[in-house]
Amino acid sequence: AKASTERGHLRYLPQMDQDAGEQARLGAEMRTALDEGQFRVFYQPIVSLPEGRIVSVEALVRWDHPVRGFVSPAEFISVAEQNGLIVELGEWILRESCAQAVAWRDAYGEKAPQRMSVNVSARQLAEPRFPELVASVLASSGLPAAGLVVEVTETAVFGGGRTVQAVNEIHALGVRIALDDFGTGHSSLTLLQTVPVDILKVDKSFVDNITMAGRHAVIATALIMVSDGLGLMAVAEGVETAEQAAELHRLGYRLAQGYYFGKPSPEPEFDAVNEAVRPG
Ligand code: C2E
Ligand code: CA
Ligand code: CA
Ligand code: CA
After folding, report:
1. Which of 124, 171, 214, 252 is buried deepest, with most CB atoms within 10 A?
2. pLDDT tens across 142-157, in order?
3. Does the Cβ of 238 fall within 6 Å of ligand 1?
4. 181: CA distance to ligand 4 center in Å?
């Protein structure tokens, strides 16, 4: 959407109306989608680079719309944030992914992913009862707290209200906290001094050109040093090639995620991991 100002008045361009109308339509359809079960959770593997096996998965919501087909979360999560439905949708995602984690533990035993990573947005975190909700979902699903990771962005944590307190309470349950999109404008070093972060998710933008000499490898190296120095785990995001995986491994990264290892899917192949995810 683009807008320009003219003599102090905000002038809306046609594109903006289209976006606003589109967002309003999506928002209106979301209620029905929740009631009719049009949302799905897909899971993307996070792998150990030294061992070449899946150690955890990230839950990523999908909207399987009867008419529009697949709607990207990049589109509808912000709409759900604005109309507040993210609270209900987010609770459903949390319940669904914790139940799935327990089902995999039952089915695969030691081969099941050790941790389930769930994205939590600003509005959810700001809900006064959110830490209680996490505790009660863990209890009802039977997933140990150590088996859950809550992924937050800096924007969400500094969203105001009691969000910082909420992160502390969730961490106190034994749930791990991951800082998403680390290194981008959504996340900086300040947060590391404010909330108990366990995992840094190094943004795809630093991984993209890592095999070319230059800035990207420098930043990726600096970020793993920060992570190691603070005793945190780093996950390199958006790894698409064997060369990137090998280079990240060489730089000292032990965890990675990306299309090279597996796209988000309803059920990653935990059995075939040793062949499928071995880097480089
Ligand atoms: P994110 O949390 O940073 O998730 C990573 C995104 O990168 C996902 O997009 C994933 O499919 C994509 N990705 C993973 N590996 C690769 C790769 O190798 N190459 C490329 N090009 N992309 C890769 P997705 O699923 O479309 O989600 C987009 C964003 O929507 C997420 O970014 C997150 O901010 C939000 N989102 C997704 N699911 C949820 C959810 O359940 N709850 C909340 N609150 N937000 C969610
Ligand atoms: Ca994430
Ligand atoms: Ca991310
Ligand atoms: Ca992102």
Report:
1. 124
2. 999 999 999 999 888 8
3. yes
4. 5
